[in-house]
From TrEMBL:
<dbReference type="GO" id="GO:0006564">
    <property type="term" value="P:L-serine biosynthetic process"/>
</dbReference>
<feature type="binding site">
    <location>
        <position position="42"/>
    </location>
    <ligand>
        <name>L-glutamate</name>
    </ligand>
</feature>
<comment type="similarity">
    <text>Belongs to the class-V pyridoxal-phosphate-dependent aminotransferase family. SerC subfamily.</text>
</comment>
<keyword id="KW-0664">Pyridoxine biosynthesis</keyword>
<keyword id="KW-0963">Cytoplasm</keyword>
<feature type="binding site">
    <location>
        <position position="171"/>
    </location>
    <ligand>
        <name>pyridoxal 5'-phosphate</name>
    </ligand>
</feature>
<dbReference type="InterPro" id="IPR020578">
    <property type="entry name" value="Aminotrans_V_PyrdxlP_BS"/>
</dbReference>
<feature type="binding site">
    <location>
        <position position="152"/>
    </location>
    <ligand>
        <name>pyridoxal 5'-phosphate</name>
    </ligand>
</feature>
<keyword id="KW-0718">Serine biosynthesis</keyword>
<feature type="binding site">
    <location>
        <position position="102"/>
    </location>
    <ligand>
        <name>pyridoxal 5'-phosphate</name>
    </ligand>
</feature>
<dbReference type="GO" id="GO:0030170">
    <property type="term" value="F:pyridoxal phosphate binding"/>
</dbReference>
<dbReference type="InterPro" id="IPR015424">
    <property type="entry name" value="PyrdxlP-dep_Trfase"/>
</dbReference>
<keyword id="KW-0808">Transferase</keyword>
<dbReference type="InterPro" id="IPR000192">
    <property type="entry name" value="Aminotrans_V_dom"/>
</dbReference>
<keyword id="KW-0032">Aminotransferase</keyword>
<dbReference type="InterPro" id="IPR015421">
    <property type="entry name" value="PyrdxlP-dep_Trfase_major"/>
</dbReference>
<dbReference type="InterPro" id="IPR022278">
    <property type="entry name" value="Pser_aminoTfrase"/>
</dbReference>
Length: 359
């Protein structure tokens, strides 16, 4: 591979075949004489791109009948407000699980629109695990249960889908399309695109029909799911180029064998990297093994004074953006879909050599 391996947590690397195709089509998409970024979102050229992208996404995820797929703006952070605005009105109360930095932000925003019951929190343990189902103190009258299946900063991932009588809402920004999921278990799924789906600027929303249509009084038009569903995600100008690139990623995934094939690759990448960390006295991962993320692998060095040397050496060896989040420190390797297995192998080899010379 001629390009460096980019371990960024997001915006993350995109598949090289996708970038190559976008490069080929930059000046003239499919004989139209236009770049996709220049097209009217209501023109037949872009409409064909949008329709194909949704069709491919529905096929990849086996989305059942009765769910809408929306292609929105505002990132997952906008959904921290849009979810309670659209779903809490029935009872004015929602359950949330607090398992890391992103669920904390979702909880803080939800407090502005409804009563929030934190049904479980691992914050006292510094977010090193996901709570078990038996630990969830769920309300009997919640409008929904919100959780973050994968916390990108702490590297904590739920090894199960929570059971709830209320509709389940999931921020899947860092897990959607990384493996098969049963969409029918969820009332609503949302995901910022910049991890496994495409470039920043696009947000995917998958929502069950019966959860649309009762927003809080005063909800802005652009925050109303019904408005976007009824207009085919084109109430205003959508993020057209990001939508197009996401469509190319969907086709790339289908060519790899769909989410079953992608899931097997991702499982193997994560297992290799954790085995290298666990097999060393020089590196450590703080997360309980059962809750370790497939997508984001934080690790520390035995001597933090060597962090700068590690990052400099990794960059020289063609491995970028390994510095951990400022709130956690250490290192973080984000190994989303587009990170090839060879990139993980290269990181493991570099880690072993660094330990040999510095340990």
């Amino acid at each position: 591979m001629s390009r460096p391996y980019n371990f960024s947590a997001g915006p993350a690397m995109l598949p090289e075949p996708v970038l190559s195709q976008a490069q080929e089509e930059m000046l003239d998409w499919n004989g139209s004489g236009m770049c996709v970024a220049e097209m009217s979102h209501r023109g037949k050229e872009f409409m064909s791109i949008a329709e194909q992208a949704e069709q491919d996404l529905r096929e990849l995820l086996a989305i059942p009948e009765g769910y809408r797929v929306l292609f929105l703006q505002g990132g997952a952070s906008s959904q921290f407000a849009m979810v309670p605005m659209n779903l809490s009105g029935r009872v004015g109360k929602a359950d949330y699980l607090n398992t890391g930095s992103w669920s904390k932000k979702a909880i803080a925003e939800a407090h502005r629109f409804c009563a929030v019951h934190v049904a479980a929190s691992t914050q006292p343990e510094h977010f090193v695990r996901a709570p078990a189902q038996s630990e969830l103190a769920l309300s009997e009258d919640a409008a929904y249960l919100h959780y973050t299946p994968n916390e990108t900063i702490e590297g904590v991932e739920f090894p199960y889908i929570p059971e709830s009588s209320a509709p389940l809402v999931a921020d899947m920004s860092s897990t959607l399309l990384s493996r098969p999921i049963d969409v029918s278990r969820y009332g609503l799924i949302y995901a910022g695109a910049q991890k496994n789906i495409g470039p920043a600027g696009l947000t995917i929303l998958i929502v069950r029909d019966d959860l649309i249509g009762e927003p809080l009084s005063g909800t802005p038009t652009m925050f109303d799911y019904r408005v976007h569903a009824d207009s085919g995600s084109m109430y205003n100008t959508p993020p057209t180029y990001a939508w197009y690139l996401a469509g190319l990623v969907f086709k790339w995934l289908k060519d790899l064998g769909g989410l079953e094939g992608m899931g097997e690759i991702n499982r193997r990448k994560a297992e290799k990297l954790y085995a290298a960390i666990d097999g060393s006295s020089f590196y450590a991962n703080p997360v309980e093994p059962a809750s370790r993320s497939w997508m984001n692998v934080p690790f520390t060095l035995a001597d933090p004074e060597l962090d700068a040397d590690f990052l400099a050496g990794a960059k020289a060896a063609g491995m970028l953006t390994l510095k951990g989040h400022r709130s956690v420190g250490g290192m973080r390797a984000s190994i989303y879909n587009a990170m090839p297995e060879a990139g993980v192998d290269a990181l493991i080899a570099f880690m072993a050599e660094f330990e040999r010379t510095k340990g």
